[in-house]
């Protein structure tokens, strides 16, 4: 077993210090209290600030615990903020793939569609923001299940509703598919949600790697898949690239 | 060899260079911000040399990013922040002071003084604009009056004037070595010095503002700039120039009479194409040139909303009720309606269609029931109702209701707001797939001039719908709410009247 990681221990000490007493401390105070070099303390504080566990008062320069610590168990990123940050990348994906694009987050045992871009062919389409999709039968849902152990455990306990002849209804099968998703870094689905339709999706992560949502395309199965029924490699590449771009933009702006 | 079109978007805070392909897809983006100078309260200036240096860096950078060479660029289009201008020495190319930005209000007193001169109605009639600090002419007059020796130099013909398009084109085409001194009609239409009917500098307007004609550039149609770069990356044809809001109208392919685009950022900018008809607004809108492709211009009506996204920023920064701007939607969705609360964000007066500079903001309808969710709704709804007022004015001026609103800008990510705008206008709201409508409009104009795209129809085919919101509000509810909003706006007038003047 590897030994304890010193920087994590030090970060924990910084948080404990800020959690007691006045709760407001300057860099020098923190460094002196913990016996750390100022540069080291500064690096730890900057990192904690980045993950929003610590905030810096703009006027005084002092540090305090961040609001994110109070909401550790709830949402990591506001759904509307995710839409705002990813809108250009979702547009680019729709333009490149010529398919409609959705961004989904988990909500109440289903995929909540937080953003939707029409298929750019000017046909009549309905904006699907706010719609709920099944987790086990869509590519977006499989991504969310694959990276959330609690969610996939809950899915195993529930009955997997059959929506088409191809919907995965056996938990063992679903497990195998989710392992595959984690291995390849994206999910696909052909006619499991709706006959004639397919979808491809990839995970959106926040700094540290936590998956908070998924971005994907959907459309006619014969457009999205090759003759063997496998998602087309070029489209998979475009989806994965879009997911990485959104992930990077979340890192940049933090 | 694949060919591309390049756009330079010289904006208020940054300058960007964007490369587009024939399907109007974005191939590369390079961007650099420039400094804002606030030497005194109300003064806003920029360094034109810094902006020129930024262009010098971003153009090669965009080419590298796209992996292409200059000979693959069919044409370059320039779009820019409007009204901002700079004066420079014709012989050295060195700016005389900094550029004065459209936000600068140093001419408040001068504008009041000029407003007492005879001929004010005639001025408005000729240039289509009300006298305000916002437009170039008052600031230009201020420079001529306040910089020692400037007027004499200007009258000798040693000084050149230019909005940012003119400054960049002059530099790109050689500067002191034969640089072209030109501007396009849309930029010229924002100076208060151009006659809307002749589309030339107007002697009466020059006389009114005391501006010597020798300093002014030649006015050309938007797609007849006809320059070639000799600096930065030599050999690229500069074929088009347009002011940024006009470029957005063009990029949204609002080519038909009666079509409207709304750009939602810090403020809101609505432009309606009125075709070849010069409509003089009876309802508080500005008359301007939409664009000019070839011989005939497309005129436009413009209604600006001073405070749109900036109200959300105020809610975030000054009240601290949200952490990030998009969270306003989350907070607004915690309640089902505004609870009877309305916010009129007349932070520095009201713009179109009221034009009341003394008005100040109000929050009305407060009861013990109102919580921060209701306030968040009222913040978003303020942008919706201000849009309704402007669109109503446009429809009244043109006599035909517009069937759809095309939107762009950062606030189009706010789903609740876009639905609300559709609800209060009772028409669909459409968002195009390419969000960069300003740059795209400049690229379109440039590509059209160079024959890269055949005609307007070809451009229209590139426009694809990314989202559409359909109206879903009950008619009676809509009209009740609108009546409430109007009452709230009237209260800001009353407040303005009751404030003792100092």
From TrEMBL, chain A:
Q: Does the keyword Transcription apply?
A: yes
Q: Which GO BP terms apply?
A: glycerol metabolic process; negative regulation of DNA-templated transcription
Q: Which Gene3D superfamilies match?
A: 3.30.450.40, Winged helix-like DNA-binding domain superfamily/Winged helix DNA-binding domain
According to the record, the segments passing through the membrane are: none
- State any single GO MF term: DNA-binding transcription factor activity
Concerning InterPro entries, the annotation shows:
GAF-like_dom_sf, HTH_MetabolicPath_Reg, Tscrpt_reg_IclR_C, Tscrpt_reg_IclR_N, WH-like_DNA-bd_sf, WH_DNA-bd_sf
User: PROSITE patterns, per this entry?
Assistant: HTH_ICLR, ICLR_ED
Question: Could you name the domain of life of the organism this protein comes from?
Answer: Bacteria
User: Where would I find the HTH iclR-type domain in this sequence?
Assistant: 5-67
- Keyword line: DNA-binding, Glycerol metabolism, Transcription, Transcription regulation
Domain IclR-ED, residue spans? 68-252
According to its UniProt entry, the function of this protein is described as: May be an activator protein for the gylABX operon.
Q: What is this protein called?
A: Glycerol operon regulatory protein
From TrEMBL, chain B:
Residue sites binding glycerol per the record: 82-83, 134, 244-245
Q: Write down the chemical reaction(s) this protein catalyses.
A: glycerol + ATP = sn-glycerol 3-phosphate + ADP + H(+)
- Residues that bind ADP, according to the entry? 12, 16, 266, 309, 410
SUPFAM superfamilies on file = Actin-like ATPase domain
Record-level GO BP terms: glycerol catabolic process; glycerol-3-phosphate metabolic process
Q: Which GO terms describe its molecular function?
A: ATP binding; glycerol kinase activity
Carbohydrate kinase FGGY C-terminal domain location is 263-450
InterPro entries the record matches: ATPase_NBD, Carb_kinase_FGGY, Carb_kinase_FGGY_CS, FGGY_C, FGGY_N, Glycerol_kin
Q: Which UniProt keywords apply?
A: ATP-binding, Glycerol metabolism, Kinase, Nucleotide-binding, Transferase
Query: What are its GO cellular component terms?
Result: cytosol
Chain ranges passing through the membrane: none
In this chain the Carbohydrate kinase FGGY N-terminal domain maps to 5-251
> What pathway or pathways are given for this protein in its record?
Polyol metabolism; glycerol degradation via glycerol kinase pathway; sn-glycerol 3-phosphate from glycerol: step 1/1
Supply the CDD domains for this chain: ASKHA_NBD_FGGY_GK
Q: Which residues bind sn-glycerol 3-phosphate?
A: 12, 82-83, 134, 244
Tell me its family. Belongs to the FGGY kinase family.
User: What function does the entry list?
Assistant: Key enzyme in the regulation of glycerol uptake and metabolism. Catalyzes the phosphorylation of glycerol to yield sn-glycerol 3-phosphate.
Q: What is this protein called?
A: Glycerol kinase
What species is this protein from?
Answer: Lentzea waywayandensis
